[in-house]
Write a structure and sequence with these properties.
The protein is an alpha/beta fold. 32% of the residues lie in helices and 14% in strands. The protein has six helices and six strands. It has a six-stranded mixed sheet with strand order 3-2-1-4-5-6. Helix 4 links the parallel strand 2 and strand 3. The longest helix has 27 residues.
């Protein structure tokens, strides 16, 4: 009976005489936990650093657009009203229009898929955008303008000059949901002071469409969407 007990005490994973796991078991548990933490951090980094689909906007302002321009260079920021990443984009937009007073005709274009009611438009991002002056909010019913400008990612920004020529496409943040210095706002500031002629930067945000086919474009695209 004693020999059996001693044999059990020596098995890996069993408690030692003082009630503790053997050192090699503790080391294995810590190693597995460390690998899981590292894997999680790597996945998070890839998510934050990975840009979205930058789209393929028209090189000249489309005649079919219903967005009203005022003769100045026009900046369009396409936004999903429930995308948390776009909060940082709006913060950068506010800083950008403050740095370029009276130079930009800035618009935030919020998608409003067909079949949704006004509650879709009453989001935190809508409230943030309304506080930015002077910025025009355009509700894109049925995602007509988003489709017309061939944009696919929330936070995608386009700058057209006064003649309707595309000068800039990309994002206003350096990573997903991150505020601070970034190539997008720097490029637009340079373009407004005629220190450049065209710029293209990555965009970080949630998708504006589930897929590229027409059928999927009629669906709600976020698991956070209000249910009917």
């Amino acid at each position: 009976m004693m020999a059996y007990s001693n044999s059990c005490a020596r098995r890996p994973g069993r408690l030692s005489a003082n009630g503790r796991f053997p050192d090699r078991v503790v080391f294995a548990i810590l190693a597995a936990w460390s690998l899981a933490v590292v894997a999680g951090l790597c996945a998070l980094w890839r998510y934050e650093a990975g840009p979205g689909d930058s789209g393929s906007p028209p090189e000249h302002w489309p005649a079919q657009s219903k967005i009203i321009r005022d003769g100045r260079p026009t900046l369009l920021v396409f936004a999903h009203p429930l995308c948390p990443c776009t909060r940082a984009t709006l913060a950068e937009l506010e800083r950008l229009v403050a740095a370029c007073p009276d130079q930009l005709d800035a618009h935030v274009v919020f998608i409003a898929p067909e079949g949704t009611d006004d509650s879709w438009r009453d989001s935190e991002l809508f409230r943030i955008a309304r506080r930015i002056r002077p910025v025009t909010i355009d509700v894109d019913a049925g995602r007509h303008e988003t489709d017309l400008f061939r944009e696919r990612t929330s936070g995608s920004s386009l700058l057209y000059d006064s003649s309707g020529k595309l000068l800039f496409k990309g994002g206003l943040t350096a990573a997903r949901g991150h505020e601070g210095d970034n190539q997008g706002t720097d490029s637009i500031k340079a373009l407004m002071t005629r220190q450049g002629d065209h710029a293209d930067t990555p965009v970080f945000g949630c998708p504006l469409f589930e897929g590229d086919d027409r059928a999927n474009r009629q669906k709600l695209i976020s698991t956070r969407e209000p249910k009917s």
